[in-house]
Amino acid sequence: MEWKETGFILGVRPYGETSALLESWTRDHGRAMGLVRGGLSRRWKGILQPGNRIVLNWRGRFSEQLGVFIVEADHLYASELMNCPLALLALNVMNELVHIIPERDPHPRLFDSYEHLLNAMSKGYVWLADLVRFELKVLSELGFGIDLTSCVATGDVDNLVYVSPRSGRAVSRSAGLPYSDRLLPLPPFLLDDTLVTNDIPLLLQGFKLAGFFLDRHVYSFRKIAPSCMREILIKRLILL
């Protein structure tokens, strides 16, 4: 079997004395592992880094086996992010989230969001709101998406300012005010994908909202520890 596709590097680790085991993420083949012969050599040091976009040619007898990658560099995002510690933290958070996705399970829309976010980070655009959206898209791809289209209590589509932790649906101001201490704040940028913001309190609300449902549906459910990189990123935000 053989396939060729552009993808991103999620991780690299030694395999034997000279080879590297590469974990990639592609649009049509999902997370895929492969052996890069000679991948530990100096030639590959700057290329085989998490976040870099590469052209992958995978070869193997069966789709389920490890297989071998022939790799070509396409866009070296990792070097572009070196001077932005917050972006490097975000890249680790993104890659940890992608690891939640089952191996060989393609998620084209999530892949496109990942690429969009990397482009934004490397060009210095306002991107933290998109990181929150990415976390929520991971939940949606796993079947645990939240519904922000209308109020769960009244059906209203205006003045949505809360999210019910119980149902994962939006709640309007009038319906939620008496129960505001039990509801999660809904930052406005999550109601419109075109909105960007660098308002730290609103971004922290977004991370709190996504973190609540990630903990419920991923970390606690699978009995795994929450992302420490995510915690560090949020602490950095608080200090800004």
Q: In what order do the strands lie side by side in the largest sheet? A: 3-2-1-4-5
**How far is it from the N-terminal to the C-terminal residue, by CA?**
50 Å
What class do helices, strands and sheet pairing give? alpha+beta
What gross morphology would you assign?
Answer: elongated
Q: Helical residue percent?
A: 25-40%
Largest sheet: 5 strands, antiparallel
Question: Residue ranges: pLDDT <50 for 5 or more in a row?
Answer: none
Q: Count the beta strands.
A: 8
The tally of domains stands at: 2
Number of helical runs?
7
Strand content: 15-25%
User: Mind telling me the C-alpha Rg?
Assistant: 20 Å
N-to-C SSE string, H for helix and E for strand: EEEEEHHHHEEHEHH
The overall pLDDT average reads: 94
Structural notes for this entry:
With 240 residues, the chain is an alpha+beta fold. A hairpin with a 6-residue loop joins strand 6 and strand 7. The mean pLDDT is 94. The chain has two domains: 2-78, Nucleic acid-binding proteins (OB fold (Dihydrolipoamide Acetyltransferase, E2P)); 81-148 and 186-239, no CATH class. The protein has helices at 77-80, 85-98, 108-122, 128-141, 173-176, 200-222, 228-239, and strands spanning 2-15, 19-26, 30-36, 53-59, 68-75, 160-163, 170-172, 184-185. The longest helix is centred in the C-terminal third of the chain and has 23 residues, at 200-222. The protein contains seven helices and eight strands. 36% of the residues lie in helices and 22% in strands.
